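Students often ask why we bother encoding 3D structure as a string. The short answer is that it lets us treat folding as translation between two languages. Here is a chain of 359 residues written in the first language.
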Amino acid sequence: MQATDLLLAAVAPFIILDIGYTGIYLFWVMKASIITYLVIFGLLPLIFHYSYTIQRKILFLNFLQWPLNVDLTKPESVGMKGTRNFYLNTDQEIQIGVWQILPQSLLNDSTIVTDNDYDNALSHAKLPIFLYMHGNSGNRASGHRLELYKLFQLLDYHVICFDYRGYGDSEPADLSEVGVVADSKFVLEWLLKKVNGSSSVFVWGHSLGTGVSTHVLALLAQKNIQPAGLFLESPFNNIADELSEHPLSQIFKHLPWFHWVIVEPFYENHLRFESDKHIKNVQCPVMILHAEDDNVIPFFLGEKLYKAGISYHGNDTNQIQFTRIEASLGLGHKYICRYKELPNIVRSFVAEAYKNQTD
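And here it is in the second language, the structure alphabet:
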């Protein structure tokens, strides 16, 4: 018998005589509250601190697959016209599920039917090509992602989107920063080889995908390889700050052990996504887009990333740009794709990137 139970057994008769049954009820409620508090703010955080598996699940949320029961081999089932599904095997022998989405001008081209036709359309592309790196949870068929693909399609751009390992129908390998970055780096290098150069390839990262894409481009810069441009939608500066500022962290943040229990394990387990360091090595133009009412990644973390980038690149506002989206529009974390000015922003950025390549 626990010490608390022995104590309660000893004093219970006196409590009954002194405060009656209402007092007994309140006493047991108080005991349950104390135990609940100790579990939530003591036991669970300690389990989290020492469990790399739980840390990865919380960060990547790949177990949240939505939409449910979607057949990723049939993009048309979710309204994606002119789209083929295929798979790439990375240099780490990880199978990655990929979609190739044709631009608007090729949708009615009756000669593009087979995989070879799609390959040729990509290899000989004369239009911009966007490689999309998604955030955590869901898969390449998630609703807000479909909206963005369709916007790119209407702008007459080719689109390549894919699922990291452990997402969608990609191989369920162990997730890590190194792993998802390796997958993304492979797909980008495959695309650059396919189109025989980087002048028409733009990378778009959203949420966690901003950390992935910035890390990928920093690695490729070591080989003097860069795409034509990088878009960072709803980004954070690094995982340590994102963990500290995430709305769900606020119930724990006041506790003295918060940083040791919650933040440090991610750093020690190399789940860092330090975009504010990687952006130093990104040599292509960068456009950051962030909504003031983002309730997942606070707006000021996007500002911190911008300030880090601009300081690294000599305050060059052509190299690093920032678009602030007003909270009154209600676009939040996922729906910048609905921003009325977005098509013009993207067109202008692409045109300027092309112009800089010819100057």
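Translate back mentally: The chain has eleven helices and eight strands. Keep this in mind for the problem set.
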